[in-house]
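Hi Q.,

Before the meeting this afternoon, I wanted you to have the zinc ion prediction in hand. No need to reply - just skim if you have a minute. The sequence and ligand are here:
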Amino acid sequence: MLKACKRLALIAGLSALAAGCAVSPTGEKTLLLNSPQQMNAMGTQSFEQMKEKLEIEKDKQTNRYVQCIADAIVMQVPREYGYAPQDWELVVFKDEAVNAFALPGGKMGVYTGMLKVAKNQDQLASVIGHEVSHVLAQHGNARMSQQMLTQLGITATSLVLADQVDSKTQKAAVMALGLGAQYGILLPYSRAHESEADMLGQELMAKAGFDPREAVSLWQTMAEKGGAAPPELLSTHPASTTRIRKLDAQLSQYYPLYQQAQAEGRRPNCDALKPR
Ligand SMILES: [Zn+2]
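Predicted structure with the ligand bound:
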């Protein structure tokens, strides 16, 4: 598969792309064409724009509650991902939308509307853990790379037919790669990315001492809220029965991690800070 990835990149006429073939945290083959530095810069830029565009929640207690949960989650991020706990920035947006996100560069956003659906610290931890996992698994980079490749597809075909790479075509391809910033960074993720973020996220929350069974409850609630006016989060993260079944099945693996965390004293008490 990794070979296929490299061949695809080579067909696209850019040997440099072949270097972008990578393996995701759960072993999936993935093509990453942007450097982590580029992704971090884009994530940070998007986050700054959101901070200007959206109202920021100033209520101290609300902020303390969400920060408490986010802190416990990011403490469990393995260092191999290149993030230290203090690298993460959290902003609570005063917005009724049921939404949350995380961006490369260690940026996390939680909307106050989400707090009405995620009933307790464990449910909100499952959302934050999931979003942080998208960042760790570099799903934004993978998605953008896929889009770039699709855009390059026509060029690639013509290249193969002509059996030559002229400098003009190569230049056009490189320019296409530089267009990354124009692609939305908050587009829906693929089903494979959702599953991977669910796995990593449920593991993170369990290790932090949050009850991983609450991830199942959260997504059940989300599924019930679909329909005429579905929560914003559902547009990027469908609450399918498959997802809920998988989260439930994964408990055999992650519940013991939660028990272990509790035994070792990782018992977050963020609910004590929760605004009534
Ligand atoms: Zn997701």
